[in-house]
């Protein structure tokens, strides 16, 4: 089997170091790079011959869905395995819509990552039974699943809400009127398909936005 170059994208150093240590033992792994944020990610992607990316969803300055979209614009694009602790149905479907090649839950451990890598190298993509069940259960409503990608302003509003800030405080923090801040909150609720602020935060945490 030809050796592949891997980029590990995770903002936790312990996770990156642990994956690197395990991957270095594999005969089919060539060079391994690491990125902790979007800046490092793009630097590695533009300068090195990356064949496969192990991508976390929750980063300091970006979401995995955003990065996945940018990866798929490369020609040829590296294969992408999302390695995540998030299990929101909306998240999984948006990853699938944007061309992810494999999904591994962190709780499943390294053997599942290794299995996914080898399966993708052999057949192009691989999804475990839990992911296939999500695909099957949502086949009829695929196009109605809301996006998890937010604008920078929407993300700022959401983070402020998560900190417990009220509308007046959000408006002062972001230099906008209270009416504008409230409009953003209502738009977020509608965009993410929830009924109130509590649902908004639950959605955000479940899908790795916060």
Descriptors for this entry?
Rossmann fold; 10 helices; globular; alpha/beta; Arc Repressor Mutant, subunit A
Could you please describe the fold and organization of this structure?
With 210 residues, the chain is an alpha/beta fold. It folds into two domains: 4-142, 3-Layer(aba) Sandwich (Rossmann fold), CATH 3.40.50; 152-206, Arc Repressor Mutant, subunit A. It is 49% helix and 13% strand. A five-stranded parallel beta sheet has the order 2-1-3-4-5, with helices on both faces. Strand 4, helix 4 and strand 5 form a beta-alpha-beta unit. The longest helix has 14 residues, at 110-123. The chain starts with a strand and ends with a helix.
The radius of gyration over CA amounts to: 18 Å
Name of the CATH superfamily of the largest domain: Response regulator
* N→C terminal distance: 39 Å
Strand content: 5-15%
Largest sheet at a glance? Answer: 5 strands, parallel
Count of the separate structural domains? 2
Helices and strands, with pairings:
Layout lengths: L3 E6 L3 H11 L5 E7 L2 H10 L4 E4 L8 H8 L7 E6 L4 H9 L4 E4 L4 H14 L5 H9 L14 H11 L4 H7 L4 H14 L5 H10 L4
Parallel strand pairs: 1-2, 1-3, 3-4, 4-5
Helix pairs in contact: 8-9
The gist of it:
Helices cover 49% and strands 13% of the residues. It has helices at residues 13-23, 38-47, 64-71, 89-97, 110-123, 129-137, 152-162, 167-173, 178-191, 197-206; strands at residues 4-9, 29-35, 52-55, 79-84, 102-105.
């Amino acid at each position: 089997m030809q050796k592949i170059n891997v980029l590990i994208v995770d903002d936790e150093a312990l996770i990156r170091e642990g994956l690197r240590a395990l991957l270095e033992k594999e005969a089919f792994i060539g060079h391994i790079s690491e990125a902790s944020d979007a800046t490092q990610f793009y630097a590695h992607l533009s300068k090195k011959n990356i064949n496969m990316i192990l991508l976390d969803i929750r980063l300091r300055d970006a979401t995995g869905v955003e990065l996945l979209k940018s990866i798929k614009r490369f020609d040829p694009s590296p294969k992408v395995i999302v390695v995540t602790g998030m299990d929101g149905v909306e998240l999984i479907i948006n990853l699938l819509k944007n061309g992810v090649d494999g999904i591994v839950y962190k709780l499943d451990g390294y053997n599942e990552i290794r299995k996914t890598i080898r399966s993708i190298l052999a057949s192009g993509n691989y999804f475990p039974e839990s992911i296939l069940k999500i695909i099957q259960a949502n086949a009829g409503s695929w196009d109605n699943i809301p996006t998890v990608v937010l604008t920078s302003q929407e993300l700022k509003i959401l983070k402020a809400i998560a900190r417990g800030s009220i509308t007046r405080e959000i408006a002062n923090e972001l230099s906008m009127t209270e009416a504008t801040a409230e409009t953003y909150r209502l738009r977020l609720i509608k965009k993410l398909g929830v009924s109130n602020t509590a649902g908004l935060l639950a959605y955000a945490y479940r899908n790795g936005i916060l």
